[in-house]
Each structure stands twice: as structure tokens, then as C-alpha cells.
Design brief:
This protein is of the alpha+beta class. It folds into 2 domains: 38 residues, no CATH class; 82 residues. The protein has 4 helices and 5 strands. A 3-stranded antiparallel β-sheet has the order 3-2-5, with no helix packed on it. The protein has a two-stranded antiparallel ribbon with strand order 1-4. A hairpin with a 2-residue loop joins β2 and β3. α1 runs antiparallel to α2, α1 packs antiparallel against α4 and α3 packs antiparallel against α4. The longest helix is centred in the last third of the chain and has 20 residues.
């Protein structure tokens, strides 16, 4: 079954190692095959990975796009330990992400890592807020 993607004018999409930029009108693509596919809005560049969970997302993204995803596993698990020691509430996210990685379902792991970023943003929003005395 083909994946159908509707691209906005000027929107970019990664298919494998190719970056495809849509022209000035909406376009609908039907894609068959097993190449990794990421919309521009789902891509985090290394210099944009400015929080621990965004850096972790970047590593999962690298796994998804790489022909050798295991090359990133050691660094990923090191980061997981650091994040979990700082934010134990992240454990449930990591359980899901690990399950997807073990299955080789890197796109699903990436989506769960995006949820982890939202969790991190929520935690960071509470920093500096003092409890009432």
C-alpha cells in the first residue's frame, strides 16, 4: 500500500538521502517502498538539538535515516541514562521508544521521542516556579 503525502507549496521532504522541495502549488505524492521518509517539520538539525531530549530525538532520527542504525545505539543509551537520572518521569517514554527500536520501527520511535520533547518542555516550564509557602 502506497504512502500518500500532500505537500504544501515550498514544503520539503526527505526520502532516503534525497531532499525534495515542492514547487509553488500543492502536490500529492504516492510513495511505494521502504525508504525512510521525513517531512521538513519533523526534522531536527544537529545545531537545533539544544536540549537533552532534542539531542536524543536527533539520535533516533539518525538511526531512522541510517543504513546502519546500530551505529547510534551506544550514544543513544548513554543519553537515556543521563535523561532518566535527571527526569525519572521520562521512563515510560523510554520504554515505548526502546520497544520500537528493538523492533526496528525507528519512525515510531521517532514519534515517541517527539512526545518526550513535549514532556521535557512541560518539565522545563515548571523550573523557576516556586511552590507557595
Amino acid at each position: 500500500m502506497a504512502l500518500v503525502i500532500d505537500l504544501k507549496p515550498g514544503e520539503k521532504i526527505l526520502i532516503g538521502t534525497a531532499v525534495i522541495t515542492n514547487d509553488q502549488q500543492r502536490t500529492k505524492l504516492q510513495i511505494d517502498g521502504e525508504a525512510p521518509i521525513l517531512r521538513e517539520k519533523d526534522v531536527i538539525f544537529e545545531d537545533e538539538a539544544n536540549t537533552p531530549c532534542k539531542r536524543l530525538y536527533f539520535l533516533v532520527q539518525c538511526m531512522y535515516l541510517s543504513p546502519n542504525p546500530r551505529d547510534y545505539h551506544q550514544k543513544y543509551f548513554e543519553m537515556v541514562r543521563e535523561i532518566q537520572s535527571a527526569a525519572p518521569s521520562s521512563a515510560l517514554f523510554f520504554m515505548k521508544i526502546h520497544e520500537f527500536i528493538i523492533q526496528g520501527a525507528y519512525y515510531k520511535a521517532l514519534r515517541e521521542a517527539k512526545s518526550l520533547i513535549s514532556h521535557e518542555e512541560e518539565l522545563l516550564s515548571h523550573v523557576g516556579h516556586k511552590a507557595p509557602a
